[in-house]
């Protein structure tokens, strides 16, 4: 995952993986107060239009999330997570598998196992 993340960073598109990981962590919150604060922070950072790490989702999903965070639950970002996962699966990950990052990773893994 670290190699994939470095690849995404080199393409200035690491916000998708970052968002997905933040959401996975968000789901582990058990305190409603912490969940509410964290939901607002995630929204401001990744969902809100023109946010610093804005992910590529449609307006309908953005509005659903805006409503969901009024009474947040572990599932309030699920739709956006599915969209982002699909984007990475169809676009970023196949490019990563053809990249020099991945080739270097395979080479280093091969050298490690040969030792």
UniProtKB/TrEMBL annotation:
Ranges where the RGS domain occurs:
1-106
Designated name of the protein: Regulator of G-protein signaling 21-like
Short name of any one Pfam family annotated for the protein? RGS
**Which PANTHER family would you find in this protein's record?**
REGULATOR OF G PROTEIN SIGNALING, REGULATOR OF G-PROTEIN SIGNALLING 1
Q: Which gene encodes it?
A: LOC114479827
Xref: InterPro entries: RGS (IPR016137), RGS_sf (IPR036305), RGS_subdomain_2 (IPR044926)
Superkingdom of source: Eukaryota
């Amino acid at each position: 995952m670290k190699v994939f993340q470095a690849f995404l960073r080199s393409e200035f598109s690491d916000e998708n993986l970052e968002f997905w990981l933040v959401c996975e962590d968000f789901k582990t919150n058990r305190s409603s107060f912490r969940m509410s604060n964290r939901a607002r922070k995630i929204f401001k950072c990744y969902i809100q239009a023109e946010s610093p790490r804005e992910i590529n989702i449609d307006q309908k999903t953005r509005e659903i999330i805006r409503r969901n965070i009024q009474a947040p639950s572990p599932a309030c970002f699920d739709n956006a997570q599915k969209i982002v996962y699909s984007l990475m699966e169809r676009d970023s990950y196949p490019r990563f598998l053809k990249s020099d990052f991945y080739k270097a990773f395979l080479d280093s893994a091969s050298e490690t196992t040969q030792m």
